[in-house]
Design goal:
101 residues, mainly alpha
Length: 101
């Protein structure tokens, strides 16, 4: 895991970019603000999510409003949905190696 954003050299060279992103998310979210009771909650940034730099209350409101950070789209169910068939075999363990630069 990366150190929190406030400890990384050069981390504060990007505040304008984050501010513009938060502003854009706020403008987009205002369209559904009347329908969603949590739409006006303060949320963290994408960088805070990946750095693990959010306090629990901010994390809850951020994940509850994840559509304000990442584009989402609800897909309506088709007219004839069906359950996926059960597999005869279990998936193997998945391993992922990440190279940090």
């Amino acid at each position: 895991m990366h150190p929190p954003v406030w400890f990384r050299p050069g981390a504060f060279k990007r505040p304008l970019t984050l501010s513009v992103g938060v502003l854009a998310a706020t403008l987009v979210s205002s369209a559904w603000a009347d329908d969603y009771p949590h739409a006006q909650e303060p949320i963290g940034t994408v960088e805070q999510i990946y750095d693990g730099a959010m306090l629990p209350d901010l994390a809850v409101s951020t994940y509850r409003n994840i559509g304000r950070l990442f584009p989402t789209h609800t897909i309506k169910a088709g007219d004839h949905p069906y359950a996926l068939p059960k597999s005869d075999r279990q998936l193997p363990n998945v391993r992922l190696t990440v190279e940090v630069f």
